Amino acid sequence: MNPRRPLLNRQFKSVPHAPLVVLRSPSPAGKRRLAKCVPLDSFSLREKVAAGRMRVKTLGRNFANALFSPSPQPAPAGRGRGSIRGSGSIITWLGQALGLLGGVLLATTTGAASEAQFEEANRLYETGQFAEAAGLYRAATTNGVSANLLFNLGNAHFKAGQLGWAMAAYQRSLRLDPRNPETVANLRFAREQAGIQPPPLTLRQRWLRRLSIGEWTALASTAITLLLLLLTAKQLKPDRFAGKPLWIRLPAAAALAGVFLLAMAAADYFLDRRAFVIAPMAVVRNGPLEESPESFKAPDGSELRVHDRKGEFLEIETGFGQKGWINAGSVELLLP
């Protein structure tokens, strides 16, 4: 366990007012971790998901056609280029698939966070200026975010008494590093402090969120690359693959499964409609109007599931099944 990132629950149970120790100036390894970043959305989420679904659907159809359509006739003697040309469309499709996977990876990773802002935020945190430190950590995310930066942002918000902001930062950190035990422990402790019950996750969501979107992309791209290499080898030395159709069909099935799982993971990632209450006591109303009667109040740190939006109001559901409309300014969306 990294001694520079202590667990909230251990520290607060033993010394209630002891300051958290945040990451120091990143070492060379730390700089590489900070370089793994996620950009701010530059266009509509709906457009992003629609484009991704269309490409994945086309890719799946191309794979099925390539897998089950009759093999092209061998080229006449003396025209060796004919066999390569016959499979050119398959190789082109695979190249496009790799390009799509690379696009998904680039859509979730970009340049490093500002080291100067990171250092200054650490200094403010160590001097007990937690709200100011959180502001600088948040400003550093304009250049890109990393799991460590979001972890520190969550710690600063927690120490400042801003449970909703802290939980949102921890959840975003887990989207990049889903198996980090320290982030999981801190999020659990923040939930205990808030005294809230998060909305339950489905089995599919729990399974897909075991890996980050970058890891799902790497798995799918590896399977497609292996298939592309085998297809190329088959064209160069067809005798080696004669009578061995499984050498191509099994990798093709693995590539198709990888793309399908990546599509599911991308849909879960980009359509995650969770929100966290950031107001001390947010009013939830029966309708999307300020004049609508009050239904109940949600405390700071409440984790909500968003179903719809009308103007400045969001239709939400709590972990206890309570539903209503809340002002968008009272919550922090996991995906802004």
Question: Can you describe what's shown?
Answer:
- The chain is α+β, with helices and mostly antiparallel strands and about 325 residues long.
- The protein has helices spanning about 10-15, 30-35, 45-70, 80-85, 90-110, 115-125, 130-140, 145-160, 165-175, 180-195, 205-210, 215-235, 245-270; strands spanning about 275, 280-285, 295-300, 305-310, 315, 325, 330-335.
- The chain has a seven-stranded antiparallel beta sheet.
- Strand 5 (about 315) and strand 6 (about 325) form a beta hairpin.
- Helix 3 (about 45-70) packs antiparallel against helix 13 (about 245-270) and helix 6 runs antiparallel to helix 7.
- The longest helix has 25 residues, at about 245-270.
- The two termini are about 30 Å apart.
- The model is unreliable at about 1-5, about 10-20, about 25-90 and about 105-115 (pLDDT under 50).
Alpha-carbon Rg, integer: 25 Å
Tell how many strands the DSSP assignment holds: 7
Give the uncertain stretches in residue-range form.
1-7, 9-22, 24-88, 107-113
The gross shape turns out to be: globular
Helical content stands at 40-55%
What's the domain count?
2
Number of helices: 13
β-strand amount: 5-15%
CATH topology of the largest domain: Serine Threonine Protein Phosphatase 5, Tetratricopeptide repeat
Biggest sheet record: 7 strands, antiparallel
Q: Which second-level CATH architecture of the largest domain applies?
A: Alpha Horseshoe
- Note the gap between the termini: 32 Å
Which CATH class of the largest domain applies here? Mainly Alpha
